[in-house]
């Protein structure tokens, strides 16, 4: 199954690095959508089929915690796999991310780690043979 | 440790530029690249069994080229250029600390800090790097320096 992925981060550079790293995992990828903040991310989710979301925590307009809270309150997205990639090191904030049902990856990250986590949270394991 | 770090630093920096920026180092240093003025620098500090930092400096247009290649956008904004250089430093640093013992899990890596030229002068007075490499690209040059706090002091005491 090719994964449709949403990448939410206010830094266009970080979004691009996440997408490039995703392509290095060898996993089969479908459409990849980008959003600059949580609000824009939620709009994408209403309009498209998304299998997995990468969400930054520190963003303007709507931060990652608020976006994930909205997801968990909505029947349609309550089980959506969410991965938070951040340089956050406050244990309390990381614990909060886990409590929201998201998986935390500390920056910097490697393709191998990303692949391992994606397989764990989505259950997919097929590799892109192209 | 010094030889191992240099090898890992070189491999990590080359693969990061190739994988993330699609930029490929050229082996020979062009004459003109010897005397290029520094245009930007970023550092990433790490803490664990050892503490220190990784510093990356760009010359000859590489600062803009890194962001342009990551974003596939010929005219990146100043923020995009700073973010790109910082993230490259972050990724390279994350690859190197695993060589210092206990693996990456034992190290806390701080967010990248962009250095203005006046700050860089002060940073360079803080000691000499354990290892440093220069990578030359068609788009400019990168000097990557890896510092381990107290490494040279400990060596001196042993003597």
* Share of residues in helices of chain A: 40-55%
CATH superfamily of chain A: Response regulator
Indicate the low-confidence ranges of chain A by residue numbers: none
List SSEs of chain B in N-to-C order: HEEHHEEHEEH
| Overall residue-averaged pLDDT value of chain A | 91
Strand content of chain B: 15-25%
Determine the N-to-C terminus distance of chain B.
Answer: 17 Å
Q: How many strands in all of chain A? A: 5
Give the count of structural domains of chain A.
1
Main pleated-sheet profile of chain A? 5 strands, parallel
- Work out the helix count of chain A: 5
Q: Secondary-structure element order of chain A, as H and E?
A: EHEHEHEHEH
Tell me what the CATH architecture of chain B is.
3-Layer(aba) Sandwich
Q: What's the count of strands of chain B?
A: 6
Helical content of chain B stands at: 40-55%
Radius of gyration of chain B: 15 Å
CATH topology of chain A: Rossmann fold
- Tell me the overall shape of chain A: globular
Give me the CATH fold name of chain B.
Chemotaxis protein chec
- Largest sheet report of chain B: 6 strands, antiparallel
Q: Which quaternary structure do these chains form? A: heterodimer
